[in-house]
Amino acid sequence: MQGQSQQQAYDRGITIFSPDGRLYQVEYAREAVKRGTASVGLRTPDGVVLAANRQVSSPLMERSSVEKIHKADEHIGVASAGHVADARQLVDLARRRAQGEQLRYGQQIGVETLTRAVTDHIQEYTQTGGARPFGVALLVGGIEDGEPKLFETDPSGTDYEWKAAAIGGDRDVIQGYLEENYREDLDVDGGLELAVSALSEPEDEVVAAEDVDVATITTEDESFQSVDDDRLESIIAEIETETEESDE
Amino acid sequence: MNNWTGASGPQGDADPSPYDPELGSLPNGAQGDEHGDTVNKTGTTTIGITTDDGVVIATDMRASLGGRFVSNKDVQKVEQIHPTGALTLVGSVGGAQSFIRTLRSEVNLYESRRGETMPIEALATLAGNFARGGPFRAINPILGGVDSEGSHVYSIDPAGGVMADDYTVTGSGMQLAYGLLEQEYEEGLSLDEAQSVAARAIKSAVERDTGSGNGVFLAEVTEEGVDIQGHNDFDAVI
Fold first, then answer.
1. The pLDDT of residue B203 is above 80
2. Any catalytic annotation for residue B44?
3. B18–A112: do the CB atoms touch at under 8 Å?
4. Closest residue of A to B14, CA-based?
5. How many Cβ pairs within 8 Å bridge chains A and B?
6. CATH number, domain containing residue B206
7. What ipTM was predicted for this assembly?
8. Domain annotation covers residue A220
9. Residue A224 falls within a domain, yes or no?
């Protein structure tokens, strides 16, 4: 009895180390991320592309209520995978920090600085009694000093910088696709195509326009812009033509 | 002090308010104004001039009690607060010194966290916020610095106003110094020419303003850093 309850204690309640040095609660939080639909981010010399899969569970649900991509500040966007409610908390933190930077220094916050603020916050929830880690991963993309930047946060509070990255369900498949097809000299349109193709990779066909949420932040206007359905349709049509051609 | 509600973690610790220093706490805000004549004040004339190659800052060397008694004849009223930035002490000596220490620690934290030095405009905004916040009320410094955007001079008023200019003067001798600057300042001055103009403006103030005197400190701020030299005698620098 005693022995069993002690063993179980390593994956219950507060986050504490198991004897082999693992934090089970954090690992479970990573599993929660994998249960979410995927998001993809990539940077090109002209800007950052964020794309998220937002399939809804019923045709009766309003699609616009499924938010996977958020504007953090004029020049920074965030894509999430995992618990949406947890993501909203972190996005709101990011928004407040971005405005706090304006108040404190009168300047736009850097993408890396903002990511660090978010991961510092996430980390606190892996080390505090009674707290539950955040069951969400984020891709934070934007323009810093005129350069496109892309970072990932994970439930442990670690941040990584990427050229192109996937989070959420089927991450390995999508990341593999990105590794194979990413080129440093993509333009933003090429980036959009690659991001949507990558999201489609786990399925047999290209995703439908209504099932994805896509945004760009380009170096030209340094402004978060959602990609509208018309543009998405033409990107998807382009991908379908290319796949047909390569099939022939 | 204010209603900033920054993000709080699981233990309820909030991000620092944009109006408060991150380290240390603000002393009682009203303090600066009330001590009046008994506080050591730098009656003072301080000048900042921008040039293409950097910034020149000049200050007199007198500390006084209410402008009526010279309490120190060898005061350095310009201090480095940034790798390529300096601030003048104007008004309450205690307020100005505390302001400088606070800004230095903010500059150092910013750099060690982000791997880049704080832009001068950001430093000016922060300095204005702190002045506005209250504890440093009886000060009116000049901030001069160089960054990737070029040379900057700001005057920071006691209520937190921050104004950029090509050249600016604060302190009790400001009218005297401005009188000379309005004749002598022109665009395209070299660093050496600007130093000479600044030193002559300080001399004008020192001769007629009882709160200013005893020589001149000159700071040269360039991409390379901050070089500060004191001169009891004006002949060497005019």
1. yes
2. yes
3. no
4. A121
5. 50
6. 3.60.20.10
7. 0.76
8. yes
9. yes
